[in-house]
Amino acid sequence: xxxxxxxxxxxxxxxxxxxxxxxxxxxxxxxxxxATEVYHNQSYQFAQDRYQEIxxxxxxxxxxxxxxxxxxxxxxxxxxxxxxxxxxxxxxxSHPEKDYVQEAYQDLGDYFYGRGDYKNALxxxxxxxxxxxxxxxxxxxxxxxxxAFSQHEYDKALHAFKQVSNRSKLTxxxxxxxxxxLYQQExxxxxxxxxxxxxDSDQYKDKVRPYLLQTAYKSSDYEEAIEExxxxxxxxxxxxxxEKEAQKIVGESYFNQQNYKEAIPYLEEYTNSGVILTPTxxxxxxxxxxxxxxxxxxxxxxxxxxxxxDEMAQKxxxxxxxxxxxxxxxxxxxxxxxxxAELDFDAKIQEDALYNYAKLSYEIGNPxxxxxxxxxxxxxxxxxxxHTDEIHKMLVNSYQNxxxxxQAYDVLKTKIVPENPSLxxxxxxxxxxxxxxxxxKGNDAKAEMIFSEVAQLPLKSSYSAKSVYWKGQxxxxxxxxxxxxxxxxxxxxxxxxSSENDRVDYNKGYLYFKLGDYKNAATYFKSYVNQAKxxxxxxxxxxxxxxxxxxxAQFWPxxxxxxxxxxxxxxxxxYAAFQKGMVYGLVNREAEKQAQxxxxxxxxxxxxxxxxxxxxxxxxxxxxxxxxxxxxxxTKMQNxxxxxxxxxxxxxKKAQIYYNNDQSEEALEAYKNIVQAFPNTSAxxxxxxxxxxxxxxxxxxxxxEKWVKNIGVEVDQDELMxxxxxxxxxxxHEKKYDQAEKLFEEFITKYPSSVNSTxxxxxxxxxxxxxxxxxxxxxxxxxxxxxxxxxEQAYLRLSQMYMKKENKELALNSLLKLNEISEKxxxxxxxxxxxxxxxxxxxxxxxxxxxxxxxxxNKQASASAKEDAQLIIAxxxxxxxxxxxxxxxxxxxxxxxxNIKAEVLYYKAQNLANKKxxxxxxxxxxxxxxxxxxxxxWTAKALLIMADNYRALEDPYQANYTLETIIETYPEMTDIxxxxxxxxxxxxx
Length: 989
Fold this sequence. Notes:
CATH superfamily of the domain at 787-896: Tetratricopeptide repeat domain
Largest sheet: none
Oligomer: single chain
């Protein structure tokens, strides 16, 4: 629009001279008359000199000299002499009563007006007495108005322009300037009225058209604005500025009429015209595209506004969020709604934006924070919103989806159910899931407490009933077998038909077995086997049924069940096959025992019970009188399994065979070997008696005493010591571990040098272990860990206990030693898994790698051990071959550990980004952040990838927003934050 108006022709003065008027005062003075004539001819310097002569001529009358002095100052003003105005004002102020002074004000006003000095012109017009105005009043009024207009004194100008009559040639000029002033004052309707009166003016019709367009728009007369704008656009002689302005106003008028389809062409033309656009321009075009379904264009325009932090930016963020949603880009909508919610110009938009942010976070996840955090943010800011109940339910579900049952249960129990008791069934469900989670993590005491709470809820619910069952499981794991048995009976009384009910008999069987009630154990194991489908549980129950029969001396039923275990190809069929041989021996079927053990040794050469089988078969040969075979097999067992605890007893059997075969020298040598090699065993004790018997029979008492002295053994053992040992050993074999531990501790204290001290330490350690007296067990096993007889068992138990105590260093040392000395496959498998896990926990995955490979090769390895192995191998491979690593990571998708699932998704996203599949990579990151946002480090690292993805997708807003989120959300992760800041600098370049 026109910013400055200059009107030529308004500078001419009227012809009515001030000098002509004042001449009447001095008509009688020839000199003054001549001076005034010169002044009238605008020869101000010559006139000033003449007036000065008169003013200083004392022969002249006083009034002539005085007025001459006045003209001297007036000429000085017009000659622009220094200090002239001041001298004039001094004179005028000294003679205010003089008419010629008053008349001079208008003269000076006209003078300055003619020179374009509107400031001084207005100054003297203001001093002019309206009654003394000379010339045409319309022209005077216009000059005053124009001078005021030029000095931005618009109210004064309007007042002056109003004095111009409608019959004056200056009327149109006055209306035009008045209209312009009213337009500037945003009095659009009044301005519009004046401009309308000039529509047909030859002088002003082109000039007022832009004003008519503007004032129609500002008066909200959008139809008129559209009409005026289209006329301007149709004109061939409009300026570029007017064309652009017309496009803008026509577009905005259609926009305000909500006729967005018609608005778009004009707004689009305006935005493409090269003008500097405002946020409002982009917003209106974006909104128009939004309302007409062109969401990608809407997004493009909204994104040009959102760098600001003002009201328009808030509106744009909000609309941008909705456009993203409509375009199916919900991930991007999250950031937009969040940005709108962080600005407080419009409270309604702010709340709805945060609601949409929370709701979208629940629907698709949130890469910047966990879903519960997003939902809780809304609840904290708007606790009494109409959406509170809805968000609360989302919150519970989100905790549930994240597996954070602790929080879900707490929200339900403390916030939702007290206000809405009808949701108690949901409380039962979540509480049950929380209890199961605790149980899986090994937090049995806490799990029992939660299951008890759920079970006591006053409602009938399958989850309440299931909680009773799992409470019993937690009690079992804590060693509270009697309590667990009572709880399982309570569960059965509820009559729930569920998978848990299917295994109650199985669990009861184990409880009775643990309590030493083998008959009841057999009853329940048999019941379970008869009703259960084929499964690992059924196979295990079959084996335990056989063991229960065996322990309760029901040998024939046990034989039948052991055979079923073998036939079922059970993982422990080697044990069952061995036990068959033992049962045949117990029922005096020696031939069958011999055949079964021979078959066992042939079919299971790698069994952990192979040394036991050799020993038992050799003993059977011995019993059958086949001494040569017995000796050969005992010797082979000793050679093949030198670390077996049965080696001294095999040697003892050989000594007895030699003795019975009258081979005293061979028997004596064997007995002595036992005492020397295994001094702290019961076999050594028996061997001492055997040596004594041979020396006595050979009348070599002196040799015997000499030998006994050399080995440092008391020949006459106190019978009480033997009885104490045997009583303690009996308690152990009857599984009365508390009593056994106590008796062996007393035995060791009383007889520290007993030949049975090693045995006593072993039995004490094992009893303490079974009684969960960890420190006592460790102390005992540490004493005998380097004894060949018990080294395997000692290192096994020590590694188990140190792992339980989370003493990784001692556990690792024990496992490495166990792996080194053990010949038993089960022990080696256990050690391999343990070593792998500890190296992994220590961050030494390179050392863990070979053990992980062994675990995966082992078909007997547990699912959790294989999962750990796959993770270790994947982490090693990821450094050199991400594609190969992902093959292992894919196998970890079924893991129940959230940190592993987060890691899998991170590397999946990284791999996709490496292959330039940026959108799919972002999808993986959103899944990571929404499902496993609690894994903060993986989430933060993934967001760095997401920022790079957005940058590659040429979306700097989303990239920068993502980096800003990292910086604000994870300040403690210094390295990641520094990376984010560095990436921000690249975006802003």
